[in-house]
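Postdoc handover notes: sequence design on the structure in folder B. Input C-alpha cells:
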C-alpha cells in the first residue's frame, strides 16, 4: 500500500558499528595467526614481546619481481603519512586514488599526501588530500579494506601519470589468469628498499585461499601468487594495484610473510566494490568530479550503464549483516515498506506504511536478506505517531512497537538517531538501503544499498515547490541514476553511522532533477508546536535499548552524541525491565517512586515489570518489583500525556549509586 504519488524505498547503508580500519586489519591478522598456532601446535605468540612490537605484517611488496620505471606503471601512486612513505595506491581518475583502508586509518586528510609520477616517492612532489571515503560496513567481522582518496587538485596526465580503468566483472578474475602487481615496498621479509618493482603472478583457486587463511577469506577477496612462493607482495605496498588485462582488478590487502610457500597474497576484489566506488565518486561534493565520470572509458571511472539492474536504483546487493538495522514491514502478508530498528521493541518507519493502525494487519521481519522467503513475522503491539499526521501527511513518521524483544546479533542491530540537524549539510555522503523495486514498475525483492549525497534544501523546493517543509530533506543525485524506489518507504537514510532520515517519497525512480525526499529525523524534534514527540519518545526508548549491553558489548553509543558515565554521575537513573528485558528508562523521585513514560508500561500488569537501579549495567543492578502504576486519565486518548508514576514494592536504600532527584516546580 503506497501513497498516490510514487514512493521511493531508501536503502540506508549506515556506517553502523564501524571500527577503525587498522583495528579491523589487525584483528583479521591476529585471528589468522592464532589459527596457524592452533593448527601447527606452536605456542601462542604475543603481539608485544619484551619492549618491541611484532610487526612482521606482510600486506605489502614485491618479492621476486623486476625493477621498472614509473612510465611502465604510470597508474602507481604512493601514500605518505605525515611525509613518510606508508602504502601504495592506484590512480583511477584525475582526482581519485584507490588504496587500502588501513593505509589511511586516521581518516584525517591533512595527515596524508599522495605522490605520483616518480620512481622515488619520498622525494617527489606531495599532493594534498581533499577528502577520504570508506565503505562503512562489515560482514561477519570481515574487513572491507578499501578506500577512496580525493585529491585537492586535478592531476595532469602524461607519460608518467595515467589512470587505470576499473574491472567491472567478477567473472573475469578467473583461476590461472596472469596479473601484474607493483609497488615500492620491501623486497624481502625484514628488508626495505625503496625501489619500484613489478611482478607477474596468477590468480589462484579460492580453495587455496581458504586452505591458507580459513574462514578469514570472504566473497570480496581473492588470492594470487604462486603455490611455491618466490613471487609475492611484501611490506610497504598495501593498497597497491593488481592489474588484469590492463584494468584494476585488486587492491593489495594481506599475505603471510613474503612469498611464503602455500601462503599467497590476499586482495580486495575491485569488481565487488565497483558500484560503491562509482556511486561514491558521483556523490562527492564537487561539480568537477561529475565531469570525471562522464569521460570515456579509456579515461577511467566510467559508469557506462545506468545500473538500473541494481536496487535502490544504482546501488548494489548486500547481505543483512551489512545493514543489520534494516527492517521489512508486511501488510496482509505482502512486503510493503522498509523500517529501521531503533530499539529492542521499536522500529521507525513512515506513517503511510502503517496507516490502518490495526496491529494485527502488520508483521515485521528483521535479520534476513530475503524477508519474503526466510523471515519470521514478528507481531506488532502498538503504533505511535504525531497527532498532526492525520491532518498533514508530510509528518510521515511512525513508531512501531513490537510485542516481543528483539535478540541482537550480527544480523540484528539497532541504529542510533542523529540528533543534530546541522550535521545533515549539503554534499554530505549518505547511504540508503531496502528491499523494494529496482526500477519504475519492476519488482525485485533484493536487499541493496547505495551511496548518495544530501542536496541543498533549495534544490528540494525547486523540484517539489508545493510539498517541501523545513522538516523534510532531499538526497540523491540531480542527474538521477541512484535513488530509492517503490517498496522501501519508511526505510533508513544514514549519515555518519546514525539514522538521519526516513524514506518519504520521490517522483519516479532515479528521475533526473527529482531527488528522493526524506523525513529529517533530527528536525522532527523542533516541531513541538505540532505535538510531535517522536524524537523525545525515541530518546527515552533508546536510553536502554539501542545502547543496551549485549553480553560483552560496549555501551558507548548511549544517548546519541553524549558521553559514557558511571552510575554515580547519574544516581537517579533507573531502568524499566519487562519480562527481564530492558524496556525504558526512568527517574528516581522518591524511596518508592519512579517517573517514566506512559507508553513504556502500555496495558500490562505491574507484576510483569521491575526497575533496576544502582548500576551502570542494569542487569547487574538492584532489581525492585513494581507494586502499582499511576497514569493521567487523559493519556488513554492523548499521546501528549505520555507520563507515568511507578510505585515500588519496597523502599530503595539510598547510596552513592542510588539517589532521588528533585522535581522542577516552576515552568519558568
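Designed sequence:
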Amino acid at each position: 500500500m503506497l501513497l498516490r504519488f510514487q514512493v521511493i524505498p531508501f536503502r540506508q547503508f549506515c556506517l553502523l558499528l564501524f571500527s577503525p580500519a587498522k583495528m579491523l586489519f589487525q584483528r583479521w591478522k591476529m585471528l589468522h595467526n592464532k589459527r596457524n598456532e592452533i593448527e601447527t601446535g606452536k605456542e601462542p605468540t604475543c603481539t608485544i614481546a619484551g619492549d618491541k612490537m611484532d610487526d612482521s605484517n606482510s600486506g605489502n611488496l614485491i618479492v621476486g619481481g623486476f625493477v621498472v620505471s614509473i612510465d611502465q606503471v604510470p597508474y602507481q601512486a604512493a601514500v605518505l603519512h605525515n611525509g613518510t612513505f606508508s602504502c601504495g595506491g592506484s590512480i583511477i581518475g584525475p582526482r581519485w586514488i584507490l588504496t587500502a583502508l588501513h593505509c589511511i586509518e586516521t581518516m584525517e586528510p591533512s595527515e596524508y599526501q599522495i605522490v605520483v609520477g616518480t620512481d622515488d616517492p619520498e622525494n617527489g612532489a606531495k599532493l594534498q588530500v581533499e577528502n577520504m571515503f570508506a565503505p562503512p560496513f562489515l560482514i561477519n567481522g570481515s574487513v572491507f579494506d578499501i578506500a577512496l582518496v580525493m585529491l585537492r587538485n586535478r592531476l595532469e596526465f602524461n607519460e608518467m601519470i595515467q589512470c587505470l580503468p576499473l574491472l567491472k566483472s567478477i567473472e573475469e578474475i578467473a583461476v590461472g589468469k596472469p596479473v601484474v602487481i607493483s609497488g615500492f615496498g620491501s623486497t624481502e621479509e625484514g628488508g626495505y628498499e625503496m625501489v619500484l618493482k613489478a611482478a607477474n603472478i596468477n590468480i589462484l583457486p579460492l580453495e587455496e585461499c581458504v586452505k591458507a587463511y580459513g574462514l578469514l577469506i570472504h566473497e570480496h577477496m581473492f588470492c594470487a601468487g604462486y603455490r611455491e612462493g618466490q613471487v609475492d607482495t611484501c611490506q610497504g605496498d598495501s593498497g597497491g594495484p593488481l592489474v588484469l588485462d590492463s584494468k584494476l582488478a585488486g587492491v593489495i590487502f594481506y599475505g603471510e610473510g613474503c612469498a611464503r610457500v602455500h601462503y599467497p597474497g590476499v586482495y580486495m576484489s575491485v569488481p565487488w566494490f565497483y558500484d560503491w566506488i562509482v556511486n561514491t565518486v558521483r556523490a562527492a561534493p564537487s561539480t568537477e568530479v561529475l565531469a570525471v565520470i562522464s569521460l570515456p572509458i579509456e579515461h577511467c571511472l566510467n559508469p557506462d550503464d545506468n545500473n538500473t539492474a541494481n536496487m535502490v536504483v544504482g546501488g548494489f546487493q548486500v547481505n543483512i549483516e551489512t545493514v543489520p538495522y534494516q527492517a521489512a514491514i508486511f501488510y496482509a502478508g505482502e512486503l510493503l515498506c522498509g523500517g529501521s530498528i531503533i530499539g529492542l521493541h521499536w522500529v521507525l518507519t513512515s506513517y503511510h506504511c502503517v496507516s490502518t493502525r490495526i496491529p494485527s494487519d502488520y508483521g515485521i521481519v528483521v535479520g534476513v536478506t530475503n524477508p519474503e522467503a526466510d523471515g519470521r513475522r514478528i507481531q506488532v503491539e502498538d503504533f505511535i505517531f504525531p497527532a498532526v499526521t492525520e491532518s498533514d501527511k508530510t509528518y510521515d513518521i511512525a513508531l512501531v512497537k513490537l510485542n516481543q524483544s528483539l535478540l541482537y546479533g550480527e544480523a540484528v542491530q539497532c541504529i542510533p538517531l542523529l540528533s543534530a540537524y546541522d550535521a545533515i549539510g549539503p554534499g554530505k555522503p549518505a547511504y540508503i538501503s531496502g528491499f523494494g523495486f529496482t526500477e519504475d514498475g519492476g519488482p525485485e525483492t533484493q536487499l541493496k544499498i547505495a551511496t548518495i549525497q544530501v542536496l541543498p534544501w533549495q534544490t528540494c523546493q525547486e523540484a517539489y515547490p508545493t510539498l517541501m517543509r523545513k522538516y523534510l530533506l532531499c538526497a540523491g543525485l540531480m542527474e538521477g541514476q541512484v535513488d530509492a524506489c517503490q517498496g522501501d518507504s519508511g526505510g533508513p537514510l544514514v549519515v555518519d553511522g546514525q539514522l538521519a532520515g526516513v524514506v518519504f517519497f520521490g517522483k519516479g525512480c532515479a528521475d533526473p532533477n527529482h531527488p528522493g525526499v526524506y523525513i529529517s529525523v533530527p528536525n522532527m524534534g523542533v516541531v513541538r508546536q505540532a505535538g510531535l514527540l517522536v524524537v523525545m519518545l525515541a530518546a527515552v526508548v533508546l536510553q536502554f535499548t539501542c545502547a543496551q549491553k549485549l553480553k560483552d558489548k560496549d555501551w558507548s553509543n548511549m544517548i546519541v552524541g553524549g558521553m559514557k558515565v558511571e552510575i554515580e554521575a547519574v544516581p537517579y537513573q533507573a531502568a524499566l525491565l519487562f519480562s527481564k528485558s530492558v524496556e525504558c528508562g526512568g527517574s528516581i523521585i522518591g524511596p518508592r517512586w519512579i517517573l517514566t513514560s506512559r507508553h513504556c508500561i502500555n496495558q500490562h500488569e505491574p507484576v510483569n515489570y521491575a526497575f533496576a537501579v544502582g548500576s551502570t549495567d542494569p542487569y547487574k543492578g538492584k532489581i525492585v518489583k513494581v507494586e502499582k502504576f499511576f497514569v493521567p486519565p487523559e493519556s488513554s486518548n492523548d499521546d501528549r500525556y505520555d507520563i507515568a508514576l511507578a510505585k515500588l514494592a519496597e523502599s530503595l536504600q539510598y547510596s552513592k549509586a542510588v539517589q532521588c532527584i528533585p522535581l522542577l516546580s516552576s515552568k519558568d
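Context for whoever picks this up: The chain has three domains: 1-15+305-561, 170-271, 565-668. Don't rerun without checking with the PI first.
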